[in-house]
Amino acid sequence: MARIAVFNQKGGVGKTTTTLNLAAAIAARGGLPLAIDLDPQAHLSAIARAVPRTSDGSIYAYYRDARPLSSLVVDSPLGWPIIPAHIELAKVDTQFGKGPNILNRLRAGLARDGFGEAGSVLIDCCPMLGVLSLSAIFAADRILVPVSADYLAVKGAAQVDRTLNALQRVVGRRIERRYVITRFDQRRKMSWDILATFKARFGADLAESRISENVSIAESPSSERDVFAHAPASRGAADYGALFEELEATGFLE
Amino acid sequence: MARIAVFNQKGGVGKTTTTLNLAAAIAARGGLPLAIDLDPQAHLSAIARAVPRTSDGSIYAYYRDARPLSSLVVDSPLGWPIIPAHIELAKVDTQFGKGPNILNRLRAGLARDGFGEAGSVLIDCCPMLGVLSLSAIFAADRILVPVSADYLAVKGAAQVDRTLNALQRVVGRRIERRYVITRFDQRRKMSWDILATFKARFGADLAESRISENVSIAESPSSERDVFAHAPASRGAADYGALFEELEATGFLE
Ligand SMILES: Nc1ncnc2c1ncn2[C@@H]1O[C@H](COP(=O)(O)OP(=O)(O)OP(=O)(O)O)[C@@H](O)[C@H]1O
Ligand SMILES: Nc1ncnc2c1ncn2[C@@H]1O[C@H](COP(=O)(O)OP(=O)(O)OP(=O)(O)O)[C@@H](O)[C@H]1O
Ligand SMILES: [Mg+2]
Ligand SMILES: [Mg+2]
Question: Which residues of chain A are modeled with pLDDT < 70?
Answer without folding.
Answer: 1, 96-98
